[in-house]
# Entry
Amino acid sequence: QPHPAKSQHLKEPCYLSVQPCRALVDEKFKVLVQKAPPGAQLTVRSHHHSENKHEWEAFGHYICDSTGPRGTYEGVEPMGLLWSLRPVPGSKPGLRLRKMNVETPMEVTVSVYQGHLSEDFSEQRALAAVVVERWYMAPGVRRIPVTEHDTMLCSGPGRFPAVLDLWGGGGNLMEYRASLLASHGFAALVLDYLTNELTKTTGKMMENDYFEVAFKFLEQHPQIVGSRIAMWGLSFGTAMTLKMAVYSNVIKLRCAVCYSGSHIQPVDGSVKDIKEYMGKKRENIRVTENQEVIFRDLTLPVPKDPAFKVDMGRLQCPLQVVVGLDDQSWPAYESAMDMKVMMEEAGNSHLLTLLTYPHTGHLIEPPYSPYVRTSILRPFPVKVLWGGETAAHSRAQEDAWRKTLLFLREHLYDMRNSAVTSKSNL
Amino acid sequence: MTSAAMDSIVAPLLSVAPTRALVDEMFTVRVENLPPCQHFTLHSLHLSEDNDYWEAFGHYTSNHKGTVVPQDYTKGGTYTGKEPMGLLWSLRPVPGSRKGLRLRKMNVCSPLLYTISVYSGHLVVGFRAQAPLASALAERWYMAPGVQRISIKEKAVRGTMFFPPGTEWPLPWTLGYYFGPGEMETTEMKSNYFETAFNIVKDHPRVISNKVGIVGLSLGATVAFYLATESKVVKPCCCVCINGHHFNPSGKHLFDLSYDSFKMHVRKLSAYWIDCFEYQESIIIIYLNFWQMGKINCPMLLVCGEDDQNVPAVEVADDIERMVRAAGKDRLLTRLNYPGAGHLIEVPYAPHFRVTAFMQAKEQKVMIVWGGQTKPHSDAQEDSWQKILDYLQLHLYSCPSLASKL
# Structure
């Protein structure tokens, strides 16, 4: 096999197109390679420079023949060029790809190379390349900092239902899910309730009324329909969501969404108490042979004492619970099963929609987000095992996102059985 | 209305997909959560770089599920029938605008912004005075991400080069001559101006020198005819010529004339030439010469708007065909005719202008009839663009065509 750089085989460039070249991150694209001779071996590669200057790549091997290409993904999966992005060899370990500035797009260069390459791409000449923009914000969405630790995202003008967006233990203000929600017709308020300036400077954690203040802000906002507010929590955010949904006298949710979390917590506890409770049983922390930390057993077994789990029988709004069955960080499955039993006994289980995904880990993010099995979770200087397997986890992200948007449309827009066509963003 | 009552009314959900696209890509507009079986108007609004407002609208009836999509049938508005892209191609200046406007994007590095809205009832005027039920913003781009734009100022040639992103491989190239009388500066156009421009491109390190094609509209097509037949210096790989004329006003080299005298010839003839071509061909033959189209040696695609009121595109194309056939070279010529299309055959979904203002000379604004009826003209733009892209791909990328969809 001649070295690709010296080969005479493909002297002329082939024609590469990605459609669409600009899209929201939850929209699909198609990759088309033309003008390559039959039998040609090709590698299609995606490449991205992240905001914190790391390089990520993914690639697939194809053969052009008269019956079409055979790829190394299962079947033909152009979106794999995104969800299988991983740090290039030689990168710092434990990286995770998250967009901090949602007002600019993520730029991905898609290139096609001669031959079946797996490394040393920078030493090869691409036959063709295109740049693809992936946006977290649709045109017209406005980003409105509310305080230094909360941001509202809204498209306007008009009045909208809203989602209160809570992330997990990693803290910081992650706006990318909220900006996508705003791009789909839901105003969204994302809160940094764990690592905001007040907590950083005084050490004082937010109290429960922090969430109630945020809710009231939305309820009274002239662009928000106050009776149509939902809460969406992931991981630790689930703990807060369930607490507010069940116990708050101020927060009246139209519906709630919980990803990769649990109802296990000291019911009368503040945010601080809950955090401490989560980390108490250190003896339950397991470590793999690769020094990856498994946190899921910290709150297991599911307590029988009602003082340590949210009383799901008192829930009065529809709830969608999304669980990765290989979640190594939180006991989301065990908690979901217990919640189901509690609600069946109380007679409100018709409110519960439970989605479980095999071989899916903890970080169930918007579709096509690159999958990571482990990463460094600040502030812990350890490599956390999230779980899951690349392809199954990526499919779960796609399916869960679509179903959650449908759930929100059903309850916040009264749109039952809304049609989902291939042309819509869902 | 009380706020409790307001609360129970949820806004319709209007979505545009994709929200960002190239100008030649389609989009779909969908409105959901409307009251069923009622009248609504879909409206698009665009503020041009010249600060004029342009709009288009269609009248719809929501179905029993409370949904409207532009694939539905519209019976009224600036477009009728099943026209998903009608909100773009039927755009026209809002009532009260200056006369003779034309919509052209000068800064191609930024997108065209369209506000797509839905209104209650079947409206015809007064959109901006009413609050829409819902709105979304769509971006339409002339440039894909990663395309580089480079101004050229070399050897008196002024132009812009656009490079596709990414690769270091040399690429095939298209040279676009796109202008009409009155739009260039009054500088002397030497005979070698366009040859110099062609060579700048051909000799560029990122260009495959024997894969440079030409696309020309109107006078740009005439330049292409000249280069393809008369130039001893330049050999285009292929030409795409849209609504050009092939006559040489003085029999001398077109660009040995100063621009002013060329303009004078064009103006003297333009009052008469349609009549001349149709009814007085013999007179034309006495007074005019034509580029000898039988001398072409490269493939050529002719695009003709049959309702072109500025250039007798069909008669010109007939004459070119005759000359090329007489020289035994008809395999080089491909022709596309578009009934009902006018002179300005642009990219898909661009608005149609039958008449616009035009600076014939300094301080001399005239209204020029370009021709065409909106719907057939828009269909021509959509159809011809794809065929032009396919034609350029066929001739400029020479590997046998085998598409691989990943």
